[in-house]
Amino acid sequence: MKHVSDAETEAFLRPLPVGDLYGIRRAQAETLRRFGTQSIGQLAALPATTALRVLGRHGRVLQERARGTDHRAIAPSGTPRSCSLRADLAQDVLDGEQLRTTAACLAAELGGRLRLGQQAAGAMSVMVRLAAGRTVSTTWTVAEPSGHTDVLRGATDAILDGFALQRADPPAHGRRRTNRERRAGVHS
What we know:
- With 188 residues, this protein is of the alpha+beta class.
- The chain folds into two domains: 7-66, DNA polymerase, domain 1 (Orthogonal Bundle); 84-179, DNA polymerase, Y-family, little finger domain (Dna Ligase, domain 1).
- It is 38% helix and 19% strand.
């Protein structure tokens, strides 16, 4: 991404091909090229009546953009609706306590991210890849959306308990833990 100051906008846009202008359709750019208008700078220099005749009702807006003026509102992107964390272990894990410790670390990191973004988890999903190549996953809806580590750790423990992993079916080297969908208006 390149930042162009207001003072440099016209100079930046001027040499670009007319087809690169935001909002111009391929057919409009082709029509302009047939009339000898190859660059955005040439479109900016056209008389307004010519731009309107050649481009139709959008001619004025496209010509304004060619001159570096865009009246559209800039809206910041919203907060993400989900978040995921992943821990890959170097080898298969037979020790359930090691798996729970890894999951607890992920819950703590997730809680920190949620609190930093003033978000709350409404649900938590955990996916575990088993040594046999099979994957088990489930989602747990928390009683009340939260970004607190203890709540997230409790949800993780409940999910792992539900998996009822046996020594004969230990988790493989990859673990993936994904987080919830944010509930609108709920903050921690």
